[in-house]
Structure formats: structure tokens, C-alpha cells
Specification:
By secondary structure, the protein is α/β, with parallel strands linked by helices. It has eleven helices and 18 strands. The strands form four sheets. Strands 9-6-5-4-3-2-1-10 form an eight-stranded parallel sheet. Alpha-D-galactopyranose (GLA) binds next to loops. Alpha-D-galactopyranose binds next to loops.
């Protein structure tokens, strides 16, 4: 730190993994607003995130998605913000966010155009990276539309190199939808990579481009070994509080994203959310699981059509265990803790996170009921003395 204070350029030498030692947390405009965004919406969102406690709970990135730019570059080939929707310019928006202790995220695309038809970065990578740095951008989500003829690892490495050359630490969010298995090549290129196509605000509906969170969750099974401190699988942004999700489904969705060490990028209208949705997003025990310093992603232990058990190893010898009912009716869960073979200690204290109560310890069997699409999220702590 002393070295960096004396020699500010030493930021260039920082390993990219230091940019996101735990999964990034913030908000993104896409899931609710698509391209209907403007500076007033973003500023109101930031203001709401202060008053509702989200910023102080850790949601520090405020990220513009597709639709922020003018339809054309300027005469010098530079990106510019849409002059009608962002009349004060993109830098002014970044300044507003920084003045309120947020970080500023933006969106672009490796292809010639973004998915919504705005200018893409292809053949402008270095120029655009410099523009972002000059605007104070802290996070870039980089999409994959109109990328015909490009090789994904090369295209993402090109922008990664361009970002690093600016000297500004910018988190690089690879949004290639999992097509070329970025978990195999993206560690060191970016700090997070999408593992799938888009999520939608349902439990398990399949649309042309998007699928419900449960399907996206299952598509991440087996990828847990590729994530770790500074490099994260990204099962897409949160739909908590959106669309047709029931409260149980929002709660389960959030529980699983925390269990997966997923980036927690809220995608709802946080200016107008119900208190019970806010309470999901800012739950400190859930966020502590997501942000656990061990950086180990969770995994599915067992599953049938009515019962699933997932687990995540945490620091301090703790475990998070998530019991999930994927069926349509309430089911009983009844099992012996000692059958969960990953548990190495003989006894753990068990806390029910959503209900904020200690239930028993692992020398007892677990017996409980879980309603449709709901979870019991349990935190186990080694306990020799009980
Ligand atoms: C792709 C991405 C989405 C969103 C849209 C914007 O579909 O996967 O997350 O950024 O583009 O057009």
C-alpha cells in the first residue's frame, strides 16, 4: 500500500484478481428497464439504494446496461452517451455515483453492435477503454452479440488488455453466455463470466433467449470447481422481486445465488420494492455466505423431484446447507446429518438463517417440512461442546 501511495502507477502491476476478491455486488438496469434508461432513473436508483440500506449492505456497483449510448460514435470515433436521455453526459453520471460512494459500471459488446443495436467495441477496443477510464468507469460488462468471425478468448483478452492499459482498475464482466466454456479460459482475463444465456423472472419458463432461475441454476452444476477468490462463475443477474416469482421463489433464488458465490447484481426497481423483497436483498446472513472469504462455490449434494440438498464450504469450518423443495406441494425432509459425508466434524451447531433461530445440532436427525419452491438455509458451525 505504501508503495502504491508513493508510485501511483503501480496500479498497473496489480493482479486482476484483486479487483473482485469476493463476488461483485450492485445493481444493473437491464432486467427491469431494458433500454428505457436515463440519468434520472439511475440517480433515483442510487438515492434509493442509500435510503433502503442496499449500498451499505454491499451493493456498491451501479451498472448501466445496453442502451446508454448514442446510436452513432462522434466524428472522432468516440462513444458518447445518448444526448437526450443523459443530457449531462456519462462522466457526470459517474461523478454523481462516486460522490455518493458508489462504483460506476457500464456495458458494451465485443461485436460490431450491442445486442440492442448500439455501437459495439469491435476494432475500437483501446479507444473505448480509454473513454471508460476518462469517465471514471469501475466495471465493464462486455457482451457477445454481432460477434461473427471473432474468437471468444481472443476478443475478451483484447478488451481485458485494453482496460488494463488504461491504468484504472476496472472489473471485467465477461458476458459470452457460456458458449465457449469461459470457465476454462477466462480466469485472469476477467473477474466474472456468464455461464449461461439470459435469466428471466420466472421459476422455470423457457423463452427464446431466456430461462427461469431454476434452469439457470441447474446449468451451473459441475462448474463450481472453476470459481474462486477473484474469479467467479456468473449465473446472471438477480430477478429477486421481479415478474411472476412468488416470495418463496425470490427467497430461494437469492439463497442459491449466495450458495453459488454468484455476483449479486440486483435487477429489480429498487425505488419501488416491497419491504419483504428489500429484506431478502439486504439480509446480512445471506450476504455473509455469498461474500465468504474462503471463496468456495457451493455444489449440489443430492436431488430427486421433490428434495434437493446443496452445500457450500465456508471459512472457519462452517458450512451452508440449503434444503430445497422443487416440487409443487409441501414435502418432508428427514435425514441423518452423518449421511452428509462432506461434513468432517462430528458435531455442528445448526442455525436456520431465514427464520433466525438455532434449531438443533447435527447429532440429531434433521426433520422438517418445506413448502413448494421454498428453501431452508442452514448454517453449520463446528461445535465440540454441545
Ligand atoms: C444480452 C445479455 C443481457 C443484456 C442484453 C442487453 O442478452 O446477456 O444480460 O445485457 O444483452 O441487450
Amino acid at each position: 500500500i505504501l508503495f502504491c501511495t508513493v508510485f501511483p502507477m503501480c496500479v498497473l502491476a496489480q493482479a486482476p484478481s484483486l479487483l473482485a476478491p469476493t463476488p461483485p455486488m450492485g445493481w444493473n438496469s437491464w432486467n427491469t428497464f431494458q433500454t428505457h434508461i436515463d440519468e434520472k432513473l439511475i440517480e433515483q436508483t442510487a438515492d434509493a439504494m442509500i435510503s433502503n440500506g442496499m449500498r451499505d449492505a454491499g451493493y456498491v456497483y451501479v451498472n448501466l446496461d445496453d442502451g446508454w449510448s448514442a446510436k452513432e460514435r462522434d466524428a472522432g470515433g468516440n462513444l458518447v452517451g445518448d444526448p437526450v436521455r443523459f443530457p449531462h453526459g456519462i462522466k457526470a453520471l459517474g461523478d454523481y455515483l462516486h460522490a455518493h460512494a458508489f462504483k460506476f459500471g457500464i456495458y458494451s459488446c465485443a461485436g460490431t453492435q450491442t445486442c440492442a443495436g448500439y455501437p459495439g467495441a469491435r476494432d475500437h477496443e483501446a479507444q473505448d477503454a480509454q473513454t471508460y477510464a476518462s469517465w471514471g468507469v469501475d466495471y465493464l460488462k462486455y457482451d457477445w452479440c454481432h460477434s461473427q468471425g471473432l474468437n471468444a478468448p481472443n476478443a475478451y483478452k483484447k478488451m481485458s488488455t485494453a482496460l488494463r492499459a488504461t491504468g484504472r482498475p476496472i472489473v471485467f464482466s465477461i458476458c459470452e453466455w457460456g458458449t465457449s466454456k469461459p470457465w476454462l479460459w477466462a480466469n485472469g482475463v476477467g473477474q466474472l463470466w456468464r455461464t449461461t444465456g439470459d435469466i428471466n423472472a420466472t421459476y422455470d419458463t423457457i423463452n427464446q433467449w431466456s430461462q427461469g432461475w431454476k434452469l439457470r441454476l441447474d446449468q451451473n452444476i459441475g462448474l463450481e470447481k472453476y470459481a474462486g477468490a477473484g474469479h467467479w462463475n456468473d449465473p446472471d443477474m438477480l430477478e429477486v422481486g421481479n415478474g411472476s416469482l412468488t416470495l418463496a421463489e425470490s427467497r430461494s433464488h437469492f439463497s442459491f445465488w449466495c450458495l453459488l458465490a454468484a455476483p449479486l447484481i440486483a435487477g429489480n426497481d429498487v425505488r419501488n420494492m416491497k419491504p419483504e423483497i428489500r429484506n431478502i436483498l439486504v439480509n446480512p446472513d445471506l450476504i455473509a455466505i455469498d461474500q465468504d472469504s474462503l471463496g468456495k462455490e457451493g455444489f449440489r449434494v443430492v436431488a430427486d423431484s421433490k428434495h434437493e440438498i446443496w452445500a457450500r464450504q465456508l471459512s472457519g469450518g462452517d458450512w451452508a446447507v440449503c434444503l430445497f423443495n422443487p416440487g409443487r406441494t409441501t414435502v418432508a425432509f428427514h435425514f441423518k446429518w452423518k449421511d452428509l459425508l462432506f461434513l468432517k466434524e462430528t458435531k455442528y451447531a445448526v442455525r436456520d438463517i431465514w427464520n433466525q433461530r438455532n434449531i438443533d445440532n447435527t447429532s440429531e436427525n434433521f426433520v422438517g417440512e418445506i413448502t413448494s419452491h421454498n428453501v431452508a438455509l442452514l448454517r453449520l458451525h463446528p461445535s465440540v461442546g454441545i
